Amino acid sequence: MASRRSFLVGAAGVVLLPFDAARATPEALAELIKQVTGGREVRQGKIKLDAPPLIENGNTVPLTISVESPMTDADYVKTIHLFNEKNPQPHVFTATLMPRNGRAQVGTRIKLADTQKIVAIAETNSGELWTASAEVIVTIAACIEDVN
Fold first, then answer.
1. Exposed/middle/buried for 40, CB within 10 Å: 0-12, 13-18, 19+?
2. How confident is the model at residue 145 (pLDDT cuts 50, 70, 90)?
3. Whether the Cβ atoms of residue 82 and residue 110 lie closer than 8 Å to each other
4. Where do the structural domains in the chain lie, given as residue ranges?
């Protein structure tokens, strides 16, 4: 007798890969960041990535990204990108901002598959790129399904 999962996977024509096969790599992260930034220089500073250094459950990791900016028509943060090192999808999100936001700050919760580095990159309207990263230790991983 087939399990419900086997039936659904077969009916959808989907192949489930073992977790390690679907995991991003540090090399893939570096390549993705290079694509997003166009190979331009990314500098440290002006951006703060506030994430817990240790989290029990990777299903809900709170974080805040804030960037020093006056948020005026002449000088503002245009986008904030968040990446992770080991999840199946390394580009977590891109937030688009405008001067009317008043503050260059984004708060959210994300899933982390395992202990890993997360990287935030902010781009200003003048094209400057700023980055910050944080290592988050996850004791109970998210994004994992038992496919056996």
1. exposed
2. low
3. yes
4. 23-140
* Cα–Cα distance for residue pair 109/127, rounded to 1 Å: 27
**Look-up of token digits 């989290």:** 55
Distance (Å) of CA 126 to CA 73, 89, 103, 114, 123: 11, 29, 17, 35, 8
Side chain identity, residue 90: P
Give the model confidence (pLDDT) of 30-58 as tens digits. 999 999 999 999 999 999 999 999 999 99
Q: What is the mean pLDDT of residues 7-18?
A: 43
Q: Which CATH architecture has domain 23-140?
A: Sandwich (2.60)
Rounded distance, CA 119 to CA 36, Å?
Answer: 13
- Written as six digits, the tokens of 132 are 């910050």
- Cβ density class 66-95: b for 16+ within 10 Å, e for less: bbebebeeeebbbbbbbbbbbbeebbbeeb
